[in-house]
Every structure is written in C-alpha cells, then in structure tokens.
Specification:
By secondary structure, this protein is an alpha/beta fold. The chain has one domain (about 40-210). The chain has helices spanning about 10-20, 30-35, 75-85, 120-130, 175-190, and strands spanning about 55, 70-75, 90-95, 105-110, 145-150, 175, 195-200, 205-210. The chain has an 8-stranded mixed sheet, sandwiched between helices. The N and C termini lie close together (about 10 Å). The structure holds zinc ion (ZN) (2 copies). One zinc ion (ZN) binds near residues 44, 46, 76 and 77. One zinc ion binds near residues 137, 139, 142 and 176.
C-alpha cells in the first residue's frame, strides 16, 4: 500500500483557521507550487556546480512564510546549509532519521498531529519525549534540542490511524542543533535518492518525519 500522510490541504486549512477562524479551502494553485518547489536536474543553489539533491523548505509548506527562501543543495553544500538553517532552531523536536524510499522529510507540530492521522497514543508519547530534551548533546556536550529517533523507533510502513512510534521509553540520543544538522546531512547523502524535499523544525515542539507518496 502506498503511504501518504494527509498533505497540503490539511495544512492550508489549519493555517486559514488560525488566521481568521474561518474554514477556507486553499485553491489548487498553491498545491501545484508546493509540488514543484524542487525539480530533478536543477543545480545546487549555493555553488551551481553540482546536481541539486536535497531541497530545504524552511517555510514548511508555507506555514512559516517569513522563514526564508527554499534552497536546493547538492551533497557538497548540504551539511553547511543545514547547519546554518538549524542554527535558527527554537524549541525542541523529535527527528526521525530518514530511511527507505520516502522522498520527503516533513515537520508536524504537536498540535497539528491529529490532523495528520497520528493516533493519540503517539502524540502523547512524543509530547512526553519533548520533556526529556535539553540536557547535554550526546556528541559534543552543547545543550540538546533534538531527540534523534533511528528507524527502529517507528513502524517503517508509517501507518496512518495506527501507532507509528514504538519503544520511545528506550535509549534515545539527544543532539544539539549543529550535530542534528550533521547527522541529517549524512543520512540524506547515504540514502542517495535523486531528489528529497525536507523541512526543519520550526517553532514550539513537533516531529520531523519521513513521508512521501
Ligand atoms: Zn553545491
Ligand atoms: Zn552537539
């Protein structure tokens, strides 16, 4: 079965409800734009000298419009680009290490998780996990901002409306923003997918999850 966690329509709907209390369905043009943010064959935005492989959307599908321009990175420029982006990280987040063929790595804020078919049990487990972050980074000793979840901590089929997370009471590595950026760059490179669209944790608390269709 093809996995597809409910996408842009729900995000736009949440945003519109936030803005004015009305439930306005987004027009299709927005969705088209989101789908074509990064295209295979484009060059790295930083150096123009390598194939672009990982597109970073700091707006998180438009939810944070002032967060900066989407940027396409080749593997040579990826780690530095992610480090710069993660240097702005506020709050804490769980990051599920990307795996398999999922071409997107999207950020879901805790309060948005119900709209994306995460079950209550999962949301409670992630909420609890957030409270454990903030001690020393396991790799460098700086203050941690991220709980790093390897693929072992999820059902890799990423089911909707059923528990996805498992064993969150186990040993989980906490990372600072810079070490999380380095770990992600390594993970994205290792996957070697032709093109990935990735986001980064923004305000408050949430989870960065592999997804795709
Ligand atoms: Zn480059
Ligand atoms: Zn660190």
């Amino acid at each position: 079965m093809v996995f597809r966690r409910a996408g842009d329509d729900e995000r736009a709907q949440l945003r519109d409800e936030d803005d004015d209390g009305l439930n306005i369905v987004s027009d299709d043009e927005d969705d088209e734009e989101a789908n074509e943010l990064f295209a295979a064959g484009q060059l790295c935005d930083v150096c123009q000298g390598e194939d672009g492989r990982v597109g970073l959307d700091p707006t998180c599908r438009g939810a944070y419009e002032d967060a900066g321009e989407p940027t396409l990175f080749g593997y040579n420029c990826l780690e530095q680009g992610l480090k710069s982006a993660y240097a702005t990280l506020e709050g804490v987040a769980a990051v599920v290490e990307p795996f398999g063929e999922y071409t997107a790595h999207y950020y879901y804020r805790l309060d948005e998780m119900p709209a994306y078919q995460f079950v209550r049990e999962d949301i409670e487990a992630i909420s609890w996990l957030m409270l454990t972050i903030g001690d020393a980074c396991a790799r460098c000793g700086e203050q941690s901002h991220v709980a790093w979840l390897t693929p072992d901590f999820v059902d890799q089929l990423l089911p909707e409306n059923r528990p996805v997370f498992r064993q969150l009471d186990g040993e989980i590595e906490h990372l600072c923003a810079a070490c999380a950026a380095t770990a992600l760059a390594e993970a994205y490179r290792t996957l070697g997918l032709p093109m990935m669209t990735v986001e980064l944790p923004r305000s408050a608390m949430g989870v960065l999850m592999p997804t795709g269709d």
